[in-house]
Structure formats: structure tokens, C-alpha cells
């Protein structure tokens, strides 16, 4: 009986654990600076491309610490993104050398495609955030904010 009680308590504790998966929205209003959802999805009727960034803390970081839109030219963002994507994809192909939990997915980025300013802006800023957050250095250029 003494051995059964701790086992039952353990089962009750495990059963009471529940994953929380409620739909949340981003509130950009001035009354609440808290960003509740860590998914950024950008798509446009003008372009057929979309970028989806799912990263805890990225929304808050881009609102509070990233350089504002228009700070960089689209050409500058495209040239940086090309180098950063190339480095990212090389690390993605080497899971024994680089943490596969950090470089889970390959990024499909074509330098000859015009993705538009917003996609390039968010992609570049994700790389800045990623490097600062996880202490990684994708290129010799290390972002400063």
C-alpha cells in the first residue's frame, strides 16, 4: 500500500498537466505593450511570397529594439539576407557540428526574386534577433542594435 500511494500521486500529477493551446492575438494598441503571440506572418497581395516567423520574444524585440522600417534600403537587406541565408543553410546541413534545434529548417531564398521590402526587413531582423538571442555568429558581420 505504501508503494502504491506515491505511484497514484505521480499519475494524478501527470494527468493534471495540460498543454495550453489557446488562440491568441497581437495587440498593437497603445494601452498594452505586451505582445501575446510570437508568430509573425507577412503576406501581400502585391507579391506571392510569405514569411512566417515563430520565435518566442521576436514580436516584442522587433517592436522595441529593431531599427525602424526604412532604415535600410531593400538592396542592402537583400545582400545581407543572401549571405545570412547561405550561412544558415550550411549550418542546417551539418547537424553534427551545429545545434540541429537552432537550425531546424532550410530557408529557400532566391537572390533573383523580388520578395519586397517587408519580407526582406523581417527576415534580416530575424537573423539579427537570432544571433543576439542565441549567441550565434552567422557571418563576419555581427549585428549591433
From TrEMBL:
Keywords for the protein's UniProt record, in alphabetical order: Signal
Residues in the signal sequence: 1-21
InterPro entries reported in the protein's UniProt record: DUF6146
Superkingdom of the organism of origin: Bacteria
Protein name (Swiss-Prot/TrEMBL): Lipoprotein
Amino acid at each position: 500500500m505504501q508503494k502504491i500511494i506515491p505511484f497514484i500521486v505521480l499519475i494524478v500529477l501527470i494527468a493534471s498537466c495540460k498543454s495550453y493551446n489557446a488562440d491568441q492575438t497581437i495587440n498593437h494598441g497603445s494601452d498594452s505593450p505586451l505582445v501575446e503571440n510570437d508568430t509573425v506572418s507577412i503576406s501581400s497581395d502585391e507579391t506571392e511570397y510569405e514569411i512566417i516567423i515563430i520565435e518566442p520574444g521576436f514580436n516584442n524585440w522587433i517592436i522595441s529594439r529593431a531599427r525602424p522600417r526604412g532604415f535600410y534600403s531593400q538592396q542592402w537587406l537583400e545582400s545581407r539576407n543572401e549571405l545570412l541565408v547561405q550561412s544558415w543553410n550550411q549550418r542546417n546541413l551539418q547537424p553534427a557540428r551545429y545545434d540541429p534545434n537552432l537550425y531546424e529548417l532550410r530557408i529557400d531564398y532566391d537572390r533573383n526574386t523580388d520578395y519586397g521590402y517587408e519580407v526582406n526587413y523581417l527576415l534580416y531582423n530575424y537573423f539579427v534577433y537570432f544571433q543576439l538571442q542565441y549567441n550565434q555568429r552567422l557571418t563576419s558581420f555581427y549585428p549591433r542594435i
